[in-house]
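Appendix B. One record, verbatim.
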Amino acid sequence: MGRARALGVTMCIVVGVLVAACSDDDNGSTNGQNDAGPGQNGDSGTPDAQVIKGSLLFSEQVQTATSDTDKRAALGISKAKVNGADVNLGYHTELRSRAKLGSSVYGRLVAKDGSPLTNADQSEVISPSNDFSSILPVGDKLWEITHFETVPAAMYLQELKQGSDGNLSAVSTKPVDFSGVDGLWTPCAGSVSPWGTHLGSEEYPPDARPVETAATISDFKNDEIKQMLRYWKVDAATATADQARAVFHPYNYGYAVEISVDAAGTTSVKKHYAVGRRALELAYVMPDKKTVYLTDDGTNDIFSMFVADTPGDLSAGTLYAAQWTQTSPAGEPHGAAKISWVNLGHATDAELGPLVATTKFSDLFDVATPNAAAPFCPDGFTSVNTDSVAKLECLKLKPGKEMLASRFETRRYAALKGATSEFRKNEGMTFDADTHTLFISYSELNNGTQAGNARDLGGPDHIKLAQNDCGAVFALDVGTDSALGSDFVVRSASALVEGISLKAPDGTPYPSGSPYYGNTCDVAGIANPDNLTFLPGYNTLIIGEDSGDGHQNDAAWAYNTSTRTLTRIFSTPYGSETTGAYWYPSINGYGYLKMQVQHPYGESDKDKVPADSSERESYTGYIGPFPALTR
């Protein structure tokens, strides 16, 4: 392996199937990248030649933050060369949480009746956890919808003004009304549908099993339910479990959430029960407007595909769950697999909607107590591993409950049907139509993704990857499957970009005197990848991080899928994460790389909280403006 460094310009030397570190950080480390991405023909080799319409070079990357000043800042790349011309960029903040525009406060949480939520001292509850932020041109106006990853959650609608130089600013903001669907739960990543709507998510929905039988609210086994009760102005400190269950129903949450907005700024809210319920990180619609991939964040998760009956309408369709058949040796780096699909059946929002608040876990499954050793379950019951309170469970589906179980208990039902429920922190997605490649990030490769892990107890142990706490981005080959009725069906997967762990015994930690001391993943490469977006025609995959000790200051990277090089283009303050990376190639002649900064000082480094409390507010903004990068 070799490494080159010259005047801050990112350079890489390709050696065999590995790419050396693309870094200006003189730490002597290397960042191994698997060069075996799937191509159009479903193999595990280099992707087929890409159709290139332009060139993009981020020539001077953002340095790894080492000074206290830089570690407190949101730093975006300052320039790029686009189609041979120099373009000045930078990170531009549109709004920060707690900003007041008119009568609205950005990020303020509200109850079902629209009144502000308050803390014990009567101060208003303001979320610093903005995540995905969509830009929606409607007529001659630009609208932006931003969702806040809290419980209860919020979405805010902004009207944007676009200056003559392309820069964006917010001129108004107001909360989106979710009272018609009993509120919103922890929206995380998102996307813009091909028909121009905001597609959000509901991550980590509560387990319905303990909620049904709990004698007290504490027995719900989920502290976030106590926070959600504020939406109905129910005091969790004094309410009984029955009083909580009268307003709170677990099957109300865990779905794809679609928001449309008209020219007057009126919003319409839909939860799509037909696509299933899971710890939904992201729903991503393919170019046919009917094939939708859904990632599931957590442990012992599934990977889902939904094929809608009608393009542009997610209210009815057939749901599938992936089955992983590993083709790379067990326990070795750079994993690869064939992907097949387990049919979970057809459903519609119309038939499911009336039942979300009345269905109970016991309506769907019989349960048995697992045995201490194999066989784990008595006759008639199937052992499954999902991210539940009980972990290993013995379940038996009740007769006639297939459709309800497939949508309200999608993980459990998929596991019963033989799908793989061992994925770990299945996060962001994006698509390159030129190479028919879907990119997916796995923030960590551990727990159920490892061979023989305790999380696989009683399950099929389909995934047998090497442990990598720094995570990886996988490339998935997409093609036509006439039996499933889609031209965008994933068929295989292989690791594309992997973080490099420096934790002993697998790696050598940075010494105490190093400016990178404490980072447990190589700073020259990715750590805990999360949000992804792709720049079509420019061979550029954007990778945002959600890291704790992997990288003290989370970063976003530009990965050139042709040269296999990484360039750091963004760095966030202490204790925050990059969220909502999303590419807008052409809005009135300009391109924008949306990028948010969530909860500064909120996840780590709380000992470094500044005296100026405004530094703890989140950022909604973008890198740019670029010239329009059209195909």
